[in-house]
Amino acid sequence: MKQRVVYPGSFDPVTYGHIDIIKRAAHMFDEVIVAVASNASKKPLFSLEDRVAMLKKVTRNLKGVSVDSFDCLMVDYVSRKNIKIVIRGLRMISDFEYEFQMALTNRKLNDKIETMFMMPNESYSFVSSKLIKEVAILGANLSEFVPSFVEQKLKKVLQKNK
Ligand code: ADP
User: Fold this and answer.
1) Which residues form ligand 1's pocket by a CB distance below 6 Å?
2) Which domains, from first to last, does the chain contain?
3) Which of 26, 31, 40, 62 has the fewest Cβ atoms within 10 Å of its own Cβ atom?
4) Which among 49, 38, 40, 53 is positioned nearest to 8, based on CA atoms?
């Protein structure tokens, strides 16, 4: 039976840390669905369409990886797809508390779905979409954190929002 997993998140925007996790998951599983949460309440900087398009671009050469989006409870989305494993990334101990709480909440909501944690290469363990947006506003060079087309898109959006 094919092993299929979902890697959910906001991806606002996708970073080299996310890409590292996607590649690791693609080595382990037959199919990886990167699922972008619409997360309107989190007020994302990028539209859902933009976040999906950026992910499609960075994963286009990765076998078994596809990109989708959802606007409902994550466990409902995953169970509708008939999938039992959710991948989340763990950067540092500081991620643990939130991720642990979320994994156990999701287990209460649907105990047939397991959350599996993966660690990125240590060089990406401090990369976060949130901090990238903060330093981008101040004109930082983002080449260590995101692909160059994402950096350009970020600068354009921030310019527009000024
Ligand atoms: P959220 O779903 O909390 O909004 P993100 O979309 O930023 O989070 O990230 C999706 C998942 O990827 C989360 O499990 C997050 O911890 C993980 N992640 C984010 N950045 C990195 C990184 N640099 N390395 C590894 N995992 C990461």
Assistant:
1) 9-11, 15, 17-18, 21, 88-89, 91, 95, 120, 124, 127-129
2) 4-160 (3.40.50.620)
3) 40
4) 38
